[in-house]
Amino acid sequence: MKIIINNDIVEFENKKENVEKIVESINQRLKENELDLSHLVIDGNYIDEELYQYLTDNILTIQEIVVVVKTPELIVNETLDSAYNYIANAVLLIKPLAEAFYQHPKQDSWKNLANLFEGIQWIMETVNRIDNIENLKNIVINYQIWNEYVQTIKGLSAVIIELEDAMVNQDQVLIGDLLQYEIQAIFETSEEKLQFLIPTGGRHHVS
User: Fold this and answer.
1) Residue 131: its pLDDT value, please?
2) Is 140 exposed, middle or buried (0-12, 13-18, 19+ CB in 10 A)?
3) What are the two backbone dihedrals, phi and then psi, of residue 141, each rounded to the nearest 5 degrees?
4) What does the domain layout of the chain look like in residue ranges?
């Protein structure tokens, strides 16, 4: 069978023992070329179920797998849409979380803080990833506002270091201050900027 991905063709024998190798090969090429999966077309048919299972069931008859990747435009739109949804929800949770740390944070408070910490890291990573896309000026809806959003998110870099130290030292008052006076403001500004940038949501591998 032939596997076509980003104008690259790889061939495998139609053997059941090759199923795992095929899935690994596709994922490796997606990762190496920093591509996101859109969908698969197998022998002319759109496939949206798990590739591993589909291959296991049909390995002897498949002739061609076309791996359709997402365009930069779609990646940007989906990522910004996800970022907007995350930030809009987080804005509503930060103030109550800060108040919890000013008092007596429970186990759920620490768990929510850890989740927020991971969310902030993800937001920063998405900004770096998008900002490195070629011809981004022709992709985002408003390039000036995009740059303003980037500068806003960069403000999280110093805050997240302080937050990590405060979490390690269990400095509850400092955590509350960082949440209420730093992160809340940055998230509110980010939400405003993203409203002018969004139109969608992404997969980065097959399974």
Assistant:
1) 94
2) buried
3) -65, -40
4) 2-69, 72-194
- Residue 180 and residue 132 in contact, taking contact as beta carbons nearer than 8 Å: no
Task: Mention every residue, 6+ apart, whose C-beta is less than 8 A from residue 61.
Answer: 14, 43
81-107 b/e (C-beta count within 10 Å ≥ 16 → b)? bbbbebbeebeeebeebbebbeeebee
Q: Which residues of 10-22 are buried (b: 16+ CB within 10 A; e: fewer)?
A: eebeeeeeebeeb
Q: Who's near 165: CB < 8 A, 6+ residues apart?
A: 171
3-state class (DSSP) for residue 173: helix
Q: Which residues of the chain have pLDDT under 50?
A: 200-204
**Residue 206: predicted pLDDT:** 57
Is-contact 189 148, C-beta < 8 A? no
Mind giving me the DSSP string for 59-101?
TTT--EEEEEEPPHHHHHHHHHHHHHHHHHHHHHHHHHHHHHH
Residues whose CB falls within 8 Å of the CB of residue 188, separated by 6 or more in sequence, listed in order:
91
Q: What is the pLDDT of residue 202?
A: 39
Between CA 116 and CA 3 the distance in angstroms is 40
Cβ count within 10 A of residue 150: 14
pLDDT of residue 201: 38
Question: Would you state the pLDDT for residue 116?
Answer: 97
Give the pLDDT score at 72. 87
